[in-house]
Amino acid sequence: ALRFKLGHDSHDYNAVQTAFYIGIIFIMLMTFVSGLVVWKSVQFQALSWIVGNYAVARYVHFAGMTLICAFIIVHVALVAIVPSTFIPMITGRAKPFPEKENSHVA
Questions:
Q1: What is the DSSP letter of 4?
Q2: Could you tell me the pTM of the whole model?
Q3: CA distances (Å), origin 32, targets 11, 15, 52, 85, 94
Q4: For the chain, which terminus, N or C, has the lower number of CB atoms within 10 Å?
Q5: What is the DSSP letter of 14?
């Protein structure tokens, strides 16, 4: 990737990609919950047990926002390296595999 020669099959996600996508969903949920605790600490004090307390919620929210921004920056960098991934990244759908000739077994 650092040599700007990154092959990517947009149909398959390896274990690292899958872990990062599951992780970013968890991070977004924790950032949302901690944001509620920081925003309205009295009204959402029942949620504060998830993140600890108000002071911990501030750190969790900051770390979550930092990780979300890093995730976005990495994706923009990957689009710069492999421009053909832009449309699948936006739509969430990859181009279908080209049909191979004689691929059907009779």
A1: S
A2: 0.69
A3: 30, 26, 14, 28, 29
A4: C
A5: -
> How far, CA to CA in Å, does 97 sit from each of 10, 12, 33, 94?
10, 11, 40, 9
Inter-axis angle of helices 54-81 and 15-39, to 10 degrees?
140
Count the neighbouring beta carbons within 10 Å of the beta carbon of residue 31. Answer: 20
Which tokens go with 20?
């990062």
Structure tokens at 23: 């992780």
φ/ψ of residue 42, rounded to 5: -75, -45
Specify whether the CB–CB gap between 67 and 44 falls below 8 A: no
d(CA 4, CA 10): 17
Hey, what are 85's tokens?
A: 């991934």
